TrEMBL record:
One of its GO terms (molecular function) is 5'-nucleotidase activity. Pfam families: Hydrolase (PF00702). This is Noncanonical pyrimidine nucleotidase, YjjG family. Gene3D superfamilies: HAD superfamily/HAD-like (3.40.50.1000), Putative phosphatase, domain 2 (1.10.150.240).
Amino acid sequence: MKYKHIFFDLDHTLWDFETNAYQVLEELYHTHTLASRGVPSFEVFHRTYMMHNEKLWDRFRKGFINRNDLRFKRFSLTLLDFKIGDDKLSHAMGTQFLEILPYKTTLFPNAKDVLEYLAAKNYPMHMITNGFEETQLIKMKSSGIDHFFTHVITSEVAGSLKPYREIFDYAIKMAGATADSSIMIGDALEIDILGAHNAGIDQVYFNSLVPVTGALKPTYVIRDLHELRDIL
Ligand SMILES: [Mg+2]
C-alpha cells in the first residue's frame, strides 16, 4: 500500500459547514428579531452574511486582519447593509455564532461510514485545519468523529496556515509520517490541494461544487466521500 497516513481537512470536507452555519444564522436571525429591525428575510440576511464572510476570510488568510476582526466584522458589515449600526449586537452575534456553531452535528453523506472503513484498515488518521483550535475540537466531538483522529493539527498550534508548507511539514513530523507515504483529503484547491502538493503530499480533492481549474491537477478527484474506498 502506497499510503500509510491519511490527513483530512475538517470544514467542508467531513463536517458540513454550510448546513451547520445556516442553522445557526437562522437561529440568531430569530433570537435577535432582525425582521423587526428591517431585515427583509432570513434568506437575504444569509446571502449578505456569506458575501462579507468570504471577503473577510480572504483578508484574514492574507494576514490583513486578525481573528477578532473577522469574528466581529462579518456581522457588523452585514447589519450595516440593512442600516443597522449596532456594535453591541454585532459583538453579541459574533460571539454567539462561534459558541453555537461547533455543537452542530451535520456531516457530509458517507463521512462516518468511510472513516469507519479506513479505521478498520488501520490507517492512522489526522486532521489539518485552518480553523480555531477550541472550535474544531468541539465540532469533532459533537459530530462523533473525534475518536478517529490521532493528531489534530490546527493553524494555531502549528503557527502556520494552509496552504503554507510549514503546517504540512509540522503535521508530517507530528504524525511520524513521510510526505510520500501520506495523502491529504480536502475541499479547497488553493488551500488543501496546493499546500499538500507543495509539501510533496498526494491529494484527494473533494468538492462537487467547484470543478478543478488552472494548472494544478489533484492526484485524485472525488464527488462523494465513499469513493475514498477505491483509493485507500
Ligand atoms: Mg475545508
